Amino acid sequence: MDVVDELTSGLLWVGGAFLLCVVGAILLGLLLCRKTRFGRQFWRLAGPYFKPRRGDRSSWKPLLTALLVLALTVVGVRLDVILSNNNNRLFTSLQELDQPAFWRAIIFFCIAAAVSILLALGSYLIGQLQVIRWRQWTNGQVLTDWLSGTAYHRARYITEPIDNPEQRIQADVDSFTDTSQTLVYGLISAMLGLVSFSIILWGLSGPLQIGGITFPRALIFIVYIYVIVGTVVVIRIGRPLIRLSFLAERLNASYRYSLIRVRDHSEAIALYGGEGVEERGLMNRFSAVIANVWAIVFRNLKFNGTNLVISQIAVILPYIVQAPRFFTRQITLGQFTQSADAFGQVQASLSFFRNAYDTFAAYRATLDRLTGLLDADEEARALPVPLRSSRTAGLEVEGLDVLMPSGEPLILRLDLAVEPGEWLLVRGRSGSGKTTLLRSLAGLWPYVRGVVSRPQGPVIFCSQQPYLPKGALRAAVTYPAPAEEIPDHAVRQALVDVQLGHLTDHLDEIKEWMETLSPGERQRLSFARVLLLQPSLVFFDESTSALDEGMEHVLYSLVRERLPRTTVVSVGHRTSLGALHQRELVLLGRGAWTTGALLV
Ligand SMILES: Nc1ncnc2c1ncn2[C@@H]1O[C@H](COP(=O)(O)OP(=O)(O)OP(=O)(O)O)[C@@H](O)[C@H]1O
């Protein structure tokens, strides 16, 4: 009878509580999104994932999974109540020496416990499924946003550049989805537990006499007053943890990045013998990490100490309050033990806010860092670029101003038309703005005004230190085109053409090629790319600086012979380059420039 009652009332309860939770979550969500900064930040990051789109059935999946996890959470709370009631029956049967009732309670416990185990495992699995999918989606969004419009590069020019975008993408996305899940379902479970066990506690609590005054339903009031006062105290003590955890992330990331820099520039540092300076710099950064760790330790001593005292008092408090009622036979042993159990559950539910405080502190820092990254991306994309049109087959520049970040002019009102197949050499003293002009033509330099027209086809920039991606050599040769798109014989031929034939046997070798190849070999490899990808326009920025004049001549002649329609703009100091180009642009400094013909 007990079992049937428990199951029927349980099912009704679960249905009602589920609906209530959905309505409550919507209302609370709306309120938080309107009234709080973290609510708006959360919705900005999570809203597009959970909002179903019209006509897209798969877009309902995230919301439906979230509702399923919610349903399992509700069932979990009800099972706790069912187990608590059963314990009451168990202890009462012991007190009354009622054997059949005792065994019924034991069998019921076994069934309920088995269901509870299955439910816990199922909830974990579905919860993880939700978190993993959500993380995959968020990672995709944040990564695409960072890479689009060259925000990953141009963010260095915004008013307040942000630190460690890589950490924000790798670690903060993970922590955002995981902690959101923990906090949201933890909150719902806490609220439901609070209501259900408060009702039980209400039924079990009786009046308490202190100094001639009678307090009705003493236990329930004691637990609420106790936990609310405890929560206020602990939150005040824990407040500085928000700032400290934010700082910890930043300091650790900055230390890690400094170590990566040493690894990346190890050769230069070793040749200078700069270990001492590097070590001092690294130790300084590490000292800042440790100072912050100590600040967190001392703050946690106070925070955890208060938490522990509050939790331990809560263990004994319900027994003390209920003992007089038990000894005067107003309540049974089952009710006595259930009082402690229900007190513990109410206390745990109310303590959710207190215990989740430091998690929430770190969570807000995570939200700040992720939305900070999206803001920085947006700001970077909004930085000025020269207006671009693709109506020309060569290169046209109209009224281009290139400035320094301070506003000082490097180039003023540059007008230039380079015909298809024409070769232009940009010259000028060091620091006159040659590389910055190329950056402006590529749309990277934000301190510009004017119009740049480029051809529609591919454009390649070859810098002095060509970039080689991680992985197989083949991918480095064809970069940025995918290796599988270029036939093997073409890749081999291009390497032979630029006199890197000895590398054809290593095309599929995976290595750190950036560190393996010499600067001259890397420069030759970038010419192989040009031959393979056949761009309409190519910029060479001191691309032969590590090669002798003979090799320079061979490489440029190859480009002229194989790509007669390609427009070339080169930057270089060598006089030998003059003989390879038809025209020159000379940057004279302070904005001045001049153009003229070169004899080929
Ligand atoms: N990110 C930056 N922030 C501030 N100033 C910069 C930045 N990049 C370049 N500059 C400055 O702009 C000026 C032009 O630099 P740029 O690299 O274009 O010169 P360059 O003519 O290519 O020099 P070189 O022949 O030595 O390579 C220099 O004074 C340089 O210090």
UniProtKB/TrEMBL annotation:
PROSITE patterns associated with the record: ABC_TM1F, ABC_TRANSPORTER_1, ABC_TRANSPORTER_2
Keyword set, alphabetical order: ATP-binding, Membrane, Nucleotide-binding, Transmembrane, Transmembrane helix, Transport
Q: What is its main location?
A: membrane
Q: Which domain of life is it from?
A: Bacteria
KW Transmembrane helix (keyword) present: yes
Answer whether the UniProt record assigns the keyword Nucleotide-binding to this protein. Answer: yes
Q: Name one GO molecular function term.
A: ATP binding
ABC transmembrane type-1 domain mapped to chain residues = 63-362
Q: What is this protein called?
A: ABC transporter ATP-binding protein/permease
Q: Which organism is it from?
A: Microlunatus spumicola
